Amino acid sequence: MPADDAEVKALLERVRTIALVGASDRPDRPSHGVMAYLLAQGYRVIPVNPQLAGREILGQRVAAALSDIEGPIDMVDVFRRSDAAGEVVDAAIAVGAGSVWMQLGVIDAAAAARAEAAGLAVVMDRCPRIEIPRLGVATPRG
């Protein structure tokens, strides 16, 4: 797991495509705000939510599952409860994602260990919307 700020910054600087699992179409939800922020920073963000599949959130078509996304996924951002994170991490491993980012309060050490064993970078209990400005990350938009 990226243990220090330099590793987290490097991860955020190499990521381009993010699958945001647990995306919401409700502007008052944290996942909506984080998705809007990541899009504004120049990342390609693919919302994932089986209940909203086929619709759009912030102009981006919603996928039902990670397996429905074509092309490489650099990071899977997990906006699910900790008890559901393991299933998302296993799906991220299955599709060959480059990394898994578990949001603030999302903690699953066993899932993190599985992801690391499969070669994925893992960040847990952090938020990219907080880390990008705090670390001075050079985002795709610059």
Automatic annotation (TrEMBL):
It comes from the Bacteria. It comes from Sphingomonas canadensis. This is CoA-binding protein. Gene3D superfamilies: NAD(P)-binding Rossmann-like Domain. Residues 11-106 form the CoA-binding domain.
